[in-house]
Amino acid sequence: MHKEYRNKFVSPETAAKLAVRSGDWVDYGFGGGFPELMDKALAARKGELSDVKIRGGLVIRPRIEVVESDPEQVSFTYYSWHIGDYERKLQSRGLCRFMPMILRYLPELYRHHIRVDVAFVPVSKPDDGGYCGLGISNYAWRTIFEQARTVVFEINEHLPMLQGVDGSHRVHLSEADYIVEGEHEPLPVRTYKAPTPLEEEIARHVVEEIPDGAVLSLGVGGVPFTVAKMLAASDRKDLGCHTGTISDAFLALYRAGKLTNQRKEIDTGLSTWNLAMGSQELYKWLREEPDRFRPADVDYVHAPDRIARMKNVISINGGVQLDLMGQENAESAGSRQLSGTGGQLDFLEGAFRSEGGKGFICLTSTHKNKDGAVKSNIVPFIPAGSVTSAPRSMIQYVATEYGVAKLSGLSLRERAEAMISVAHPDFREELMRYAKENFR
Predict the structure, then answer these.
(1) Domain check: are 250 and 371 in the same one?
(2) What are the phi and psi torsion angles at 329 (to 5°)?
């Protein structure tokens, strides 16, 4: 295969030995794309190397070998841009260090502010011309490996081979210093729990706000997926996709004949995305119908000015808490990191600037503590230690099971009253008392 690049093909063990030095920063990527073979090969060098820092994020695999093989962190330390389910467990064991970022700024971080020594890049099988697709995780890979000292391509036989529009999802074997291949586990999947009655009620409120021809950006979670299922069963038509993560929510819309992308002013007829995360059926869709998609890097997908050039962009994301001014905590419980800012701000701004666009933060009005006590998710102020992921000036719509509050253009007192109107009734009197005392 590709005789002119044969000298680049080595075993994962050889690549790990030749590519990585003590003190290096090694990038693993983001989301479902994961350098499985290189991770195992690097882990085998425990004790031989020291102070190797691994960067990744939103890992949906059940195991990272360099972390699990070295819990004493003798050789390896793991850093995450965005905490996923598995990384939360690592965090509780002291084995994951979180780095705050906003996704659209990530390429600039790599270009100007941080160091990358080695990039382990998961790629699809090459075509006859030596071009590989970036599979299910475009991320900011091109920016990263163009800054790296050493680039290792890991060919994963399960990754879809789509290469995007004008090479937007494509790399070439000549760009790697080393290339490895071998047998991989099936691609990791992300599943959805059945929605709760409260999530269904929130989704109903949001669906009422979505017009024909809307361009959707759906976060990962119960409410965005339920919104998609309700839209699939509705009379809406000609919906579009421009999203950070494409998921089974969009596959459901496509199967219902709702996802046509025909009214998009940019990438007309194509679903635009940066990451793919979902079921094997989702990955099969990408594999079998590549001409329906424009996968592209963060610089392209998350740019607010590009998002704003489309009409009726609807951004739907979840939150943890909002205060009466509209400030949002989307990612922490006190100082404990639950996820990350990710691309939420990118799409909130893009939707705000879009003609007819709307950005929604969706959350249930209450939650239960471990002791069973019911607490309001709409609070007088974001508590000390918790994160303010989005400023009050960025929040446009807030949806709970009690309705939708529009905050744009309101005074502090008016914002507080709007937030109280979608809070749980048991907490409204207490919240109103705070509002009267503090927002005169």
Answers:
(1) yes
(2) -105, 110
